[in-house]
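Hello,

Following up on my earlier ticket. Below are the two sequence lines again, exactly as submitted.
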Amino acid sequence: MKKTLIASLVTLGMFSGASAYTVAFLNIGAADPTAVPILDNTGTPIAQGSGYVAAGTFSELPGGIDDVKANFNPFGDGNTAFSNGIGVPGFFDGTRSAAIPQGTVDAPVGQNVYLVIGDGSTLADSTDFVVFDPNLVFGTENAVGAGGLDININSDAVTPESVLWGTILTDVDTGLGVTFTEGLQIGGAVIPEPSTSLLAALAGLALVARRRR
Amino acid sequence: MKTTTLKAAAAFGLSALLMGSAAAQESVSKPVGYETLEITQQFNYVGLRLLGAPLATSTVATAENAEITLASGTVADGPVIVEVIDGDAAGAVVEGTATGGVITVPASLLDNLEVDNAVTVRAPQTLASVFGATGDSLTKSAGQGGADLVLIPDGSGGFDTYWYSSGGFGGVGAGWKQVNPAGGDSSDVDGSAVTLVYTDGIIIQNRGANNSIVVSGSVKTTGTTPALTTQFNYLSTVYPAGATLSTAFDDPATPGVLKAGTLTASAGQGAADLVFVPNGPDFDVYWYSSGGFGGAGAGWKDSDGNDVDSTAVSLDSASGIVIQNRGALPQGVAIGAPAFYADL
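Thanks for your patience. The regenerated structure is below:
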């Protein structure tokens, strides 16, 4: 029975536009100041057809650029270059898809999804990154093979907590006649390593305990 | 995927529908008719576009404490479908239970329904009334793995799954079954007590040969506003002939322009509600772009971002569609009836 169901889902996945688990991500949900352009480390919006953007998981949260490259696992398949229907630089509107049949418990199910944005044409070729945490977790498809997550980077979603790596800019003018409330620039920030944070917390607790004595 | 015998009727203003089913109560249920839903192998997305007979159409006399009464008409005790025709809740469709002239409805309906609003109360369709008391419209099997499965949205993103068992040796245990989602086993269920709300799309996983199901009933002539859950919503297109993407979702005064209060538009496909229309073994995907800076390029698009003429996208062959909802909840989606339905 289980094999039959899985085979059916695979068949559906081959022909059904509503099948598979799809992560959609964009930074231009509305063409107004709430959109969040991505700039490279020189302050230039990343051009259409250039750059790298993908949703996926981290085997371990990165502490540096090399860790981003080593620890990021892009989810499924999808185009990684910047592309949007409006045709303006600095913005992407993409998806990545793969099968996560209902009942799956293995990775990436239950893991946090992250968006990694680079200035090169591939992850490896990128010199620096923006890492965005939408605070979403991978689930599974439903009984008929449909499921997904949506990541919409807008000015409400950009916070010091959601931008793990990269620089938050304000009042950004990319020459489109719009001043964007916020933008994101590749590089320029440090992701605190979990071990470092943990050590800092433990040190704080130790200090409190010592004062109480 | 599906064909309808009502297409020709649409060309004649649906007058042919009046020659359809005799099961409905003609005094209050015109127009009526039947539709043949073609069921191919594996997954079929269908909707019930011919509805249970109207039992009463009336204004609301009282509306409080999750109960309503009607100003006129009588409704026999039992499960019913309540659809709101006007007022702030216009288009809402809910399940109810009639008892002694009082109809119990979800309390949330009364957030917008008021006394003197008009409602129609319909007999519900059920698993048994649509697929047969003994499941004759479906492929039966002694085991779940060999039977057609009927998946009905449960309102929270999942499904309730049913099938008809041909029984064990000697036919022992034959009957409608419901799958336990936790264990995968099945238990007996009364097919005549499982209400099918006509706004819901139904997914039929056909394990047999290509098949067809004939559905008869009454045509709805007023608008419908089903509530959406997050992500994937399986809906009926409600109107059996003459409906298009435009009649369903556009402002009737300006075809091609999305009606306010319905789908979520966006500058990018990734944040817009997507409409999946079955097309043979695949789907055509549509969304409404709010346009670029200054609104340039706003309008209906396909999944490749090409402009789409929404008046040319027929829903006649798509009794069921899928809407991927990216908007915040609560969100309803107002599905309009084709304009000529008002004259039926």
